[in-house]
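User: Let's play a game. I give you a shape written as tokens, and you guess the letters that built it. Ready? Here's round one.
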């Protein structure tokens, strides 16, 4: 008798023998979400990235599956923990969330960086814990023509870095300072890369203003906040703490200590799920099974798990991917029952 579709999906998701597997702690995370929702008095959606995870377009589809079940809410709470990723995906996520709530409250107990900061900009209120921070959102990108590092990987280039090189050149009183600095710069960075970074910088400004427009009616204020986050800070990773967030015009407020404590406990469980799960086969071969993105609501958890072989190609001095079976997974359950399926997105 052929297996049912549900059993087939479960069979495909079964761990390969001998490879490390991260735990899926659905019961624990669900218990914490129920406690947090009771304290907040509203519906909670969580969005968590591990160290290798990032904001991406598939997150939008996963988020839709969660929100469709919750339905419209007066106030929706969004727990965000991420180092950033794709700004265009951040815009899509905010636009989707705003369709399901009149008021959005972002909960940031830890890092809420780069594209995750963009997500937080879509909230009327940003609750920040004692160790929380936002960051600048200035753009850097890795282009097909970007410079190559010592490991033979393409490096990211930011417009701020390019501008600073030009500025230092023009303020240098030494020999050759009267030359066009771009002639020398083009020897290391392809002109198309500089053009692409400049375009991406304009895109970042536009994304921030569009996200803010969901609740900030003053166009001048939107432009001021977007410009500050894109060009004020000398480092992309500069931590924007709560007082700084207020100074630039964001409605950032201290998080209730009890809520912050619960969210840190939830993050601890997610971190256990997202622990490093790499099995070294030889000095040139390894297998990765890490859970890197997690989205969750009451009764449903969706996560992305890498499942791939890595091979070091010595002649190219880089790692390449083989046998990539990475996939999205969904777990649903209530009253002691739990169902699992692989999502094809």
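Assistant: Ready! My guess for every position:
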């Amino acid at each position: 008798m052929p297996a049912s579709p549900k059993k087939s999906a479960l069979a495909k998701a079964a761990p390969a023998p001998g490879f490390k597997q991260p735990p899926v702690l659905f019961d624990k995370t669900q218990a914490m979400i129920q406690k947090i929702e009771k304290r907040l008095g509203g519906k909670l959606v969580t969005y968590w990235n591990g160290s290798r995870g990032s904001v991406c377009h598939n997150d939008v589809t996963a988020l839709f599956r969660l929100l469709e079940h919750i339905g419209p809410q007066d106030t929706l709470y969004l727990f965000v923990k991420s180092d950033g990723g794709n700004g265009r995906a951040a815009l899509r996520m905010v636009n989707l969330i705003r369709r399901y709530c009149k008021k959005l409250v972002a909960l940031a107990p830890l890092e809420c960086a780069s594209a995750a900061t963009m997500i937080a900009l879509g909230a009327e209120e940003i609750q920040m814990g004692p160790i929380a921070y936002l960051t600048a959102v200035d753009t850097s990108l890795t282009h097909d023509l970007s410079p190559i590092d010592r490991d033979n990987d393409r490096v990211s280039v930011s417009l701020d870095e390019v501008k600073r090189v030009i500025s230092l050149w023009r303020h240098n009183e030494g020999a050759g300072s009267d030359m066009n600095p771009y002639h020398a710069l083009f020897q290391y960075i392809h002109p198309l890369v500089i053009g692409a970074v400049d375009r991406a910088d304009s895109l970042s400004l536009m994304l921030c203003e569009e996200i803010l427009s969901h609740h900030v009616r003053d166009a001048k204020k939107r432009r001021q906040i977007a410009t500050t986050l894109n060009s004020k800070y000398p480092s992309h990773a500069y931590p924007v703490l709560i007082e700084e967030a207020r100074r630039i015009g964001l409605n950032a407020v201290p998080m209730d200590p009890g809520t912050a404590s619960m969210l840190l406990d939830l993050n601890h469980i997610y971190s256990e799920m997202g622990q490093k799960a790499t099995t070294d086969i030889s000095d040139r071969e390894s297998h990765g099974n890490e859970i890197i993105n997690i989205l969750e609501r009451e009764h449903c958890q969706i996560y992305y798990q890498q499942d791939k072989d890595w091979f070091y190609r010595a002649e190219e001095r880089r790692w390449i991917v083989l046998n990539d079976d990475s996939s999205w997974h969904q777990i649903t359950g209530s009253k002691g029952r739990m169902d699992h399926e692989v999502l094809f997105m």
